[in-house]
Amino acid sequence: MSSIYQQQLGADFEKLHPRIQERLGFSSGDHRAFVGEGVMERVWHGPFFTQPFLRAGLARHITFPETGHNVPFRIENYAYQDPLGRETVTWIRRFHFPEHTRCFDATMIRSAARQSIVDYLGTHQHVAVDIDMAVTERGGLRLRSGAQRFREGRLAFRLPGVLAALADVEEWYDDAADCYRIEVVVRNPVLGKLFGYTGSFRSSWHSVVPEHIPAHALPLRYEARE
Questions:
Q1: Cβ contacts of residue 201 below 8 Å, gap of 6+?
Q2: C-alpha distances out from residue 115 to 3, 42, 73, 112, 161, Å
Q3: Cβ contacts of residue 99 below 8 Å, gap of 6+?
């Protein structure tokens, strides 16, 4: 089975650096997980008036208000088929600040109907974001947020631009340093830059069948609406 990123990128997947291809090329049938550990050289947020926005996402593992330098970091990617039969990849991020470990979690699927990767943010999949993907000149992967939708019970609506958090992410492989590098910037059209981080990590691979994916890596609720 092709990974959701191979399906989305098609022939362009082969333009990725081989280590990025390896990182994004596994699916639920491969029974393996990617774990990256490293350091975020800088974790930052916008001006003081962005704080309420960042604190609002704490409980559901979407945003957090801390900043720092040389913050220990861990990312876990597991592939599985969710209860709705969708091929899914987890993005479980942990930032280990001196006083708190903060979480920035998501699950991704590929929507045939939308012809896009859909990124469900947080623990309850209540925010769904279309993701535009492209290969960069250095063989990295660039992800940019598109349309965003809120889903909570019977409530469902597209988030207006003034409420959107638009992410611009690049991940690439640094051959000289033998590590993955990542840069993330999240903006709001009204508030400006909200938060972001820059750093690096090295990988390890683990054998894991879908039934043994740890509970912390799975959402607490699955949302059928894309």
A1: 36, 37, 38, 39, 73, 74, 75, 179, 180, 182
A2: 15, 34, 32, 5, 22
A3: none
Q: Which residues contact 93 (CB under 8 A, 6 or more apart)?
A: 73, 74, 75, 103, 104, 105
Q: pLDDT tens, 142-196?
A: 999 999 999 888 888 998 888 889 999 999 999 999 999 999 999 999 889 999 9
Q: CA 89 to CA 106: how far, in whole Å? A: 9
- 138 burial level (CB within 10 Å; 0-12, 13-18, 19+): middle
Q: 3-state class of 18 per DSSP?
A: helix
Residue 32: what are its φ and ψ, rounded to 5°?
-140, 160
The C-alpha angle 69, 18, 40, rounded to 5 degrees, equals 5
- Give the pLDDT of residue 164: 86
The sign of the torsion formed by the CA atoms of 187, 145, 57, 171 equals: negative
Q: Which residue has the tokens 């590098």?
A: 181
The reported pLDDT for the residue numbered 61 is: 96
Strand 68-81 to strand 116-121: parallel, antiparallel, or no bridges (unpaired)?
unpaired
The predicted model scores a pTM of 0.95
Rg of the chain over Cα atoms, rounded to whole angstroms, equals 17
Kind of pairing between the strands at 179-188 and 141-152: unpaired
Strand partners for 183: 170, 198
Q: So what's the pLDDT on residue 167?
A: 96
